[in-house]
Specification:
three-stranded antiparallel β-sheet, mainly alpha, 355 residues, two-stranded antiparallel sheet
Length: 355
Amino acid sequence: MCDGRYASLTISFEGQNACALLACNRGSKRTARLLSWHMIRASQPPAVPPALPRLPVWAQPDGPVANDVDAAFYAGAALGSLDGLVRSEPVWVGSWRQRLALKCAVAAVRLAGRSEEEAALRDAWYLRPAGGDPGPAGSILGAWRYLASRPPAIDAGGLEQVCEWLGLRPDDSYDRLAETIEELAASDKPAPLAAAAIASHVVAGRGDAELLAWWLADLVLARKLRWSLPVPLLAAQLFSPAFRSGDGRGRRIRPGEAAFERAVYVAFACGAGDGLRLALDIARRADRLAAATPKLRAKGAGEAIRRLLDDDAVPSSLTTRNLSRFAARRLFERLQTFEAVRELSGRTSFRLYGL
């Protein structure tokens, strides 16, 4: 992380400002590392970070939506609020995106006929050997993690890789599908309808590719809204009332079926609302992490903190150039005593920590 130069990192949290200075001098006999956070206010972090957008109650559907106009209104209000958050790029946005990816992966795994929940998916991903196969369910999680961490553009090679992660057999349609994605991204369709269109197009061409349809819907939405990175939203609503016929308790509405576009509007409204509520929770936890940071003395603490802010979870066995496995475990345990991180696995060994 340090190469003989001095590096500085400035971090801004909602509701308070924090400045982290990492000083490294590799040319001396001893590596100097200073991690100090200068808080503008000594008071406790606010209960709700004021800068984060919140969705008004009237902008969330409280039951079945009877027509397309109302559905479009709800989606527009919710996505408009979410757009403000996405463009503000808070320092913890990586953790937020990856936690949304996990929620989408849980629903995708269920659609694939499997039963893994969040804890099992985390284990499959974070506890595998470096470069190891995370298994079928873990690979599905990997696909959504990839979605959340790459710009919303994809070519034939990228589509082939995503299909492999999703367990789909290869075919020769990737070039044509990539062209269709570009056409929809450049079209005059509203963003939710473009997302619905790519999902319907995929399922019409391949009935076994519904997982890919949901994955691409979020990618196309991000392209239309000009987000730097996609936000995993839609798949998490797969089994919610948004995609149920009738009063929200009927059969699941699949891509291309009647009322699918309306269902997509409602699902984006609900998904954006869920995303904003999750952001408020993560922002509070990030503020607690900022407040605890001046109490840390471990070398390499800065790298561990960065990973906590960038990812859904970090293994207690984390090792870096300046942090041993033993030191990492002690660091996370200390942060837990400050209620700055949570232990996510519920185990006494092979622990996972996150905001």
